[in-house]
Amino acid sequence: FTKRINSAIEKLPRQCKAVFKLIYFEHASTKEVAEKLNITERNVLNQKSRAIMLLKGILTSAIILFLIYHIDF
Question: Could you give the C-alpha distances from 42 to 27, 30, 45, in angstroms and in order?
Fold first, then answer.
């Protein structure tokens, strides 16, 4: 499942992916991310929210497909 999560992260739009990785993998603060990417803190929060929404959509679909094909009814 970790591979699927990493694959989903790589499919994110460029800035969403950068924000997501900095916050969740490098544990950077909103302010640090804003400074590093030269964007506003509000934009960081928007990109973070967008990344989470997109990942939920991608991963929810993957989980549903997994369950459909791997559960005996």
Answer: 18, 9, 5
